[in-house]
Write a structure and sequence with these properties.
It is built from 14 helices and 14 strands. It is an alpha/beta fold. The radius of gyration is 21 Å and the shape is globular. The structure holds pyridoxal-5'-phosphate and zinc ion. Pyridoxal-5'-phosphate (PLP) binds next to helix 4, helix 9 and helix 13.
Length: 423
């Protein structure tokens, strides 16, 4: 189904006529439409912005609010009045010297996306997709989610006054289900894998004309995550680090970060666009890592993901091939770690930086550590690890803490508890 954009929400903005969807495989230009697959070759469609028609400067960007809409010219929403903004983005890029020392790299930054409005990077793509759903005059939105996107889509839908239907595997962590429910969304738990969930959400998009953010709105959805790449460049003073390590499930985030960087270069904001894009996945579900390591030209699906890193348990990654191409093109690499290494990285990150992430968010740190130990990443490098989601939504995967003491309210008990620890 292809609908023309009607932009009946309000005034049209500076991007009118400058945005179209182009096929990644055959290059066919489909115009500014609601579609996600090429009608010639079934290839994935992606947004192309004509930077000859859209002028943007560092000064203009720096004069704007500290949220992702400061990169307005890079975001494919034409009608300003359709924008749904919860204050997402421009998250801290924290220089982490003691973590750098613990891991053994020259310089390390953490891009802390746990502080977004719904506590994961998913507010970036969900915010753009829900804005776009309003522009296309859709009455309801939804998503197929491994947990974080559900809460984010539900929050943006409420803020936009739209109904929402969010689909998740019934095995996801309880707080993620609760979180999506709190916004009033209809939460649909499917007994099956994420790939089953995705097919159910695709059916909902098709049969009920719902704007499913990562299915029929996907080309627009992924654009939101470009802002993480733009922010990293801006926060480093409009330059790039040697390497960016990204937790990967569908592969959309990694591809989008790089698209943001490539466009920043095209728009004249950065002089050099070289950066080694590096993928991080759990061993129990690492289709992109396997394809990279085995030198394959396509990503083979993992039929039964087996990992407690639920947020990254996508066996058939929708943007896996694109991620693979980006990793190779940029001279990056891909690494997988055990569930235990991902959990250990949560504690290491918390101890060294004060940031509490979920295992799927801290896996970038775990993979960097492993790649440095194995000599694949140089100790002289400057690296950014993207930390993409909070630990509060995955409390159930951590073992009970051993450093808690319960005491009666007396000074004697207090001295007995603290005294020996200070000696
Ligand atoms: C915390 C977290 N990090 C990273 C990802 C990976 O995102 P993508 O599917 O774009 O590769 C997800 C996906 O759900 C996630 O929840
Ligand atoms: Zn095509």
């Amino acid at each position: 189904m292809i609908l023309r954009s009607t932009s009946r929400c309000g005034e049209v903005g500076a991007l009118t006529g400058a945005i179209s969807l182009v096929c990644r495989e055959c290059g066919k230009d489909h115009g500014h439409v609601l579609a996600y697959a090429c009608d010639e070759c079934l290839g994935a469609l992606e947004v192309k912005i004509d930077f000859d028609r859209v002028q943007v400067t560092r000064t203009k960007i720096s004069s704007r609010n500290k949220d992702l809409w400061r990169y307005r010219e890079f975001l494919p929403v034409i009608d300003d009045s359709c924008v749904v903004n919860l204050g997402t983005g421009f998250t801290p890029l924290l220089r982490a010297d003691s973590l750098a020392k613990a891991i053994g790299v020259r310089r390390l930054y953490i891009k802390n996306d746990t502080v977004n409005p719904t506590f994961s990077f998913k507010d970036r793509p969900a915010g753009i997709a829900v804005s776009k759903a309003r522009e296309f005059r859709m009455a309801a939105v939804g998503c197929a989610s491994t947990g974080n996107l559900a809460g984010s889509t539900a929050a943006h839908a409420s803020a936009a006054g739209l109904k929402s239907f969010v689909f998740m595997p019934s095995t996801v962590e309880d707080p993620k289900v609760f979180h999506a429910s709190i916004y009033g969304s209809t939460v649909i738990l499917v007994d099956g894998t994420y790939d089953d969930v995705n097919r159910m959400a695709a059916l909902a998009a098709d049969r009920f004309n719902i704007g499913v953010v990562n299915v029929n709105l996907r080309p627009y959805y992924v654009e939101g995550s470009k802002t993480m790449g733009l922010e990293i460049a801006e926060q480093l003073g409009w330059r790039l680090p040697d390497r960016i390590v990204v937790p990967c499930a569908s592969g959309a985030l990694l591809s989008a970060i790089h698209k943001g960087i490539a466009e920043a270069h095209e728009a004249g904001l950065i002089e050099d666009d070289s950066v080694a894009m590096t993928c991080a996945q759990p061993e129990g579900c690492s289709p992109i890592v396997s394809a990279f390591r085995r030198g394959l030209e396509r990503v083979e699906p993992v039929r039964n993901p087996k990992t407690l890193v639920q947020s990254l348990a996508i066996g058939e990654p929708g943007d896996g091939l694109q991620a693979l191409r980006v990793i190779r093109k940029t001279g990056g690499t891909a690494g997988a770690v055990s569930d235990q290494e991902a959990i250990d990285a949560v504690y290491l990150l918390a101890k060294e930086t004060g940031i509490f992430a979920e295992p799927g968010g801290a896996i970038s740190v775990a993979v960097l550590k492993r790649l440095v130990e194995e000599g694949e990443v140089g100790r002289d490098e400057e690296v950014v690890c993207c930390v993409t989601g909070t630990g509060f939504k995955t409390l159930e995967v951590f073992p009970p803490p051993e450093n808690q003491i319960r005491i009666p309210a007396s000074f004697q008990a207090l001295s007995a508890a603290i005294g020996p620890l200070l000696r």
